[in-house]
């Protein structure tokens, strides 16, 4: 988001451990403030700040190399941030790694597993090193196996399982100790649609009890499971909020889809009578009955559905069959958000030295307008 | 240290269910068997100054050269390559526990393989030399040295493995380190540079790092505390360096 990002730019880096967050921090399980991570000259994570409430499911969205995995690794305490703070349950991850590690369940990218062990064996070993008390260990393993639908596969060797099963073993391991925060890096990568649904349902079933962070670049999946979406590009947050909020921020037009029978001229005249800004964006081929699907777009957020329907119904030459307002797909939001960040990156690159015009413009024109692509 | 036993049990279990463990063990015993047999043939042709067990232990470095890298090259490098080190380090275990567990597992395996070779001597004494009294002291001394030096060699191997992602590099590096310690350590005093008076301290150092000399001492019954201190402290040093290497490469990278 705009205000967020400008903040992180103008404020000089500093240690924020002494900030008076005691009162604010209570309802937030995860707090990340001005996180930076540098690998050599590359800023993998460049001033990311966000907060997650307890029980929420958060999706990290971003192109490859945007800094999603690095942010997750910093949250788990596996990597250390160059600057900034990440807090889990109000405790900075670097202050007490032991405390943090007992409160997170982490599934890394590509879900590494020891291939020679059996599923149950592996989970038993993980339960031990995750400090689950002996009396609860058996139940914890059984619950995790059951929730991931692994009971039938519990005595099979991990190396001989299919990818979907392995992925579920990884998730079972992440939820095993009933942690407060679950971090999963691309949990559904490389799975077939059926398995994706299974895992999506599984993640959704954790809502309310555990705070979940997942990353993905599969947009519909994120949209369906997550309460909050964080779009990251070039190590910066370029969009944040619920899917609806993101649409409000990034999509500045409303689209209606009408199935109508009649000449195009009459339609345009009818539209003009409702509001002059209404434009026909696209017209499909007419089907056997002579109906065409027409996309009508208007800048800004207006609700013309009723007027539109009446205007169409009153016109004797037009026979509307259906009318609905079309939600912009998250893909458009994502493209708009990442494009915006590319523009600002280009501006920043251009700002210090007077760069030639072409350099500045080129990346912008390379990306399609989000409105036209749907 | 509360996770040490869990990790160790897991390491040993994974060794036990892995076929390569048994193949490596079989090959080791095969090589040792051939060496022993070759040695006995030497005795039948010529009279020797030393007892067979002393001569047997003199050749300890041959299996060490290939067994130590084979045993240890997997340990950390494999975890790093497959990425399981990430899942391991995000649980409440410490790197010290991980390194010690890996070291202990390979050390136990190494020692058990050597213990099996004790059967050679038993067979030899019961069948070939049934009329002479078994002399256990060179054997005890020899095995004591094997177990003592094993700490250093395996920690060198673990250290090599903790530096890299590739098992091959770890194996070569481990071999080089072990080879370097045994061969250079035993022959450094022969270098002509050291004949000069000013290199006196270096020659003194070389006196203490001669692995073959230590072996000879131990198998003839001289238990030298200087050697004990050398091996134990050096192995602790390399285990500590391994911890630092993992921390550097995986913890904070």
TrEMBL record, chain B:
Stored InterPro entries: ABC-2_transporter_component (IPR051449)
Q: Does the keyword Cell membrane apply?
A: yes
**What keywords are annotated for this sequence in UniProt?**
Cell membrane, Membrane, Transmembrane, Transmembrane helix
Q: What is its main location?
A: membrane
Q: How does it sit in the membrane?
A: Multi-pass membrane protein
- Which chain regions cross the lipid bilayer? 12-35, 55-73, 107-128, 140-161, 168-188, 228-246
Listed GO MF terms: ABC-type transporter activity
Mind telling me which Pfam families this protein's record contains? ABC2_membrane_2
Give the subcellular location. Cell membrane
Looking at the UniProt record for this protein, which Gene Ontology cellular component terms does it annotate, in alphabetical order? plasma membrane
State if Repeat is listed as a keyword: no
Protein's UniProt name: ABC transporter permease subunit
